[in-house]
Amino acid sequence: MKKQWLSITLGIVTATGGFLDAGTIATAGEAGAKFGLGLIWAVIVATIAVIMLVEMVGRFSAVSKKTYAEAIRENLGFRFYLFPLISELIAESLMLAAELGGISISISLLTGIPWHTLFPFVAIGIWILAWRAPFSLIENGPALLGLATLAFIAGIIALGGVPTHLFPTLWHPDFQQGTGADYLYLVAAILGSTISPYLLHFYSSGAREESWSTSSLILNRVTAIMGMGFGSMGAIALVVLSAIVLQPLQIGSSTLGELGLVLAKPFGVIGTYLFAIALFATCLGAALEVLLAVSYNIAQGFGWEWGEDKKPAEAARFNLVITIFLLIAVVIGLIGIDPLKLALFASTVIALFLPISLAPFLILMNDKQYLGEHTNGRFTNIVMVCILIMALLVAIVSLPLEIITGGG
Amino acid sequence: MKNPGQADSMEKLDEETFSIRDILDSQLLTSDGRRIGRVADIEAEVDKHGTFRLTSLVMGPQALAGRVNSSLATLLGFLLRDRFENQIPISEVKKFGPTLELRGKAEEYSVGQSDRWIAQHILRWIPGSGI
Amino acid sequence: MWKQNKFWQQAGTWLGLLMLLAAVTACNFTQSAFAQTANNAGSAFAAAETTLAYEHAGKITPAYASSSFLSYQSELSGTDQSLISQATGDKRTLHRLLALYMPAMQVVNAPCLSNSCNWQKQLTQLKNASAAFNEAGS
């Protein structure tokens, strides 16, 4: 029982890595810099959606002993399984490259070494962790470092709280520095970066790696709310901070380094260290999560042996997928696109494919064969339909926006 | 609608074979607890009473391609020439369900041998692979 | 099988139409390419200015500043070419921006992070550039 409650850290790392990642930091920073508090509503809506989804996928895996990917293949067939798989491969490889870039930038900000130089070494480090680190280390390490995101909240307090003149931007966003297209683009990006499919695959596989059962359901609910809530708090704090510090300076937050200035203003050099550590932790957690989630997804969908606590030779195909997928992301990263831009772009690509990844929820979560008495209630189903409709609308809007705004 | 790929198999096999849907895409688990793959297709025969009987489970890239698109299956068939296709007789299945439990150990089946091949030919060159 | 394909065809058509609609609406929502480029550059120059000022105020380390400036460099390089190709009509604004771009870009390429050089002047150059670009972008 104690071990079960300890595994609440699963939720917190899933949050720091899955909720707060390069994508969220990029979107939250840009949202605050361009529109004040005008996009906080999108963060909150996305948070509620992701809490519901994570709770569902955790409940599903705890009760049915099946992961999300396994259930999609078994219940909806191979042909359907390919749709979310392929779309996630495209979107998540971009996202993984952005996370690796984010880690490189964080080290670069501490050392002054150009991030392009650091990138290959970061990739090797990630590979070593994914290759041999046990699941518990991947889970707990970044979670502890992720506490540095609390600095965003401390920063707001140190700067004297939220200035009153910002409050009207909550419902009447400031369009001076941005345009309507930018605004909608950011709404899509916030949704895509918050509700990432990799988060769901990682969480449901994590529940299996930790052998959750029906008795874990309360734990699951607490983890979903606390973990995602923690992540959301960090994201909202960053929006606010960036609205306080960057907006008056007319800085649009288009690189990660300038985003760190939000902590340099209240805390000086220590603030930049905190920012770099927070960036490092969230991107590290997210990079591992994306990498593992995609490999879990493939191995489970094809019925191969999988698991982080196994030696690579015991789950050979799974570990080969990890290596190949990481190589693909490295190739994308070596093109040299700024990680923040790449993260924004990847987030909108995720938003574009989100309906495909989420559609199976409606069917699977109401399947008594898998869930017995733990199927979705009427309320949860209604919320799920709303989430799907929202995802569909955002997906329809995001593609043309992608083209018009030139990716941010 | 739910599973386009299996529509064809359904037609072949009549309505009474309700379990086809449960068998297709099921996880194959060996007696030593290893996950070796998933059922891509099935083979059936008509016995003398005119009823269909499942004979074996089929695994492999060609069988999978057949689930997606018939011309893709033809193309893969031309390229791979059945080299990676595997079959397991239905009598090997100890327990049916979303997970099919097999009677033998992992090494007794040709399915999932790629796991061993990858471990021995690729992963062994990488430190820490556990071989 | 055939019925299914027809369903998907119809769904695809509707989706395409909706996207087209979204694209048309978004077009009316957006700035010109020139304004957008100018805006982005103005924001990056402003970031560079603040970074330089913070570095000399001791709020960030020289390492942090030089790492940030590398990003500004890749963000800003080629802006002059984009502006020239995107300019429509008003040549005066273009020339004014280009005249400010050159010295400011030199600062971004070689920011003065110690006290041995005239960083105050660099600061002014960045400030002028960011103000002009932001104005042109709004």
Describe this structure in words.
The complex is a heterotrimer of chains A (408), B (131) and C (138). By secondary structure, chain A is an all-alpha fold. Chain A has 18 helices and no strands. The model of chain A has no long low-confidence stretch (mean pLDDT 89). By secondary structure, chain B is an alpha+beta fold. Chain B has 5 helices and 7 strands; from the N terminus they run ααββββααβββα. Chain B starts with 5 loop residues before the first helix and ends in a 10-residue tail after the last helix. By secondary structure, chain C is mainly α. In chain C, 82% of the residues lie in helices and 0% in strands. Chain C has 6 helices and no strands. The radius of gyration of chain C is 22 Å and the shape is elongated. The model of chain C has no long low-confidence stretch (mean pLDDT 86). Classes of the chains: A mainly alpha (408), B alpha+beta (131), C mainly alpha (138). The interface between A and C is large, with 46 and 40 residues.
Which properties best describe this structure?
heterotrimer, A: 408 residues, mainly alpha, 77% helix, 0% strand, globular, C: 138 residues, 6 helices, 82% helix
